[in-house]
Amino acid sequence: MTKSETLEIYDSFYMSYNSDSMETLKKTLAKEQRDIRIRKFTRNRASVFGLVVVVLMVLLAILAPVICLHDPLALDVANRLKGSSAQHWFGTDGMGRDVFARVIYGARISLAVGFSVGIISGAAGLIIGLYASTNKVADNILMRICDGLKAIPSTLLAITLIAVLGADIKNVIISLTIVNIPNMARLARSQALVVKEQTYVEAMRCLGAKKSRILCRHIAPNILSPLIVQVTFVFASSIITEAALSFLGAGVPAPAPSWGNILYEGKSVIYNAWWMIVYPGAFTALTVLGLNLLGDGVRDFIDPMSS
Known about the structure:
By secondary structure, the chain is mainly alpha-helical. It has 12 helices and no strands. The radius of gyration is 26 Å and the shape is flat.
């Protein structure tokens, strides 16, 4: 074996060794960073409490047919406005329906509305923000539309849209999604404009990468973190807005069990049947609090530089 062949074999072995070492080092560092984030999240008692509350509410909604002893729509006028008992844990409403069953089944509607609005508005905002960040003409048009929608109070805009579309769960989701898209789109656009100026994006542009590839492979993944955090807050705000719309009679139509509907039905008998206000109100407040605390924890988990 000649000297040059020996040096070539040594160089190839050295490069492969360094490559394996770098891959191992990268995996180790990634694992350590992930462990640090998890420990940071678990040490935040408020975030853990929020996670427990959200998981508990989801489980209650999923297991509603198993947990509830009564049909939430079954009428029993003979036992109307009865207080808590072994048969009716949260009492009954003005038509004798079991309030506990209606509150638990109402969690299904509220969580479904909040989750759907958060996911759809987040996805639509991401697409609009990315497109606006790369096209100045579209940017001016889309952002002016967003400014116009933001100028209208969110609840008033939602009520107007539902009045046009009709009171239905699907239309409530559509209305609340339209209300929340402007904020998501502006957030995505602002983040995309920052990432677009990074060195690695400029390098990909100089190498001749297509604009769609740069957007999908390099810009979009790097702006997801703040959007994911914002989705959790949209989830929480949508639950409140849906309850408010149902309370005003413009949301989920009766007799479907909804936290807002139960509150609306209980307002006229608040002095005689306080449980119709307290229990759905407590579930609504606790769920929103849990989502907000969880959102703070997700932000700290995703962004290691946050305090």
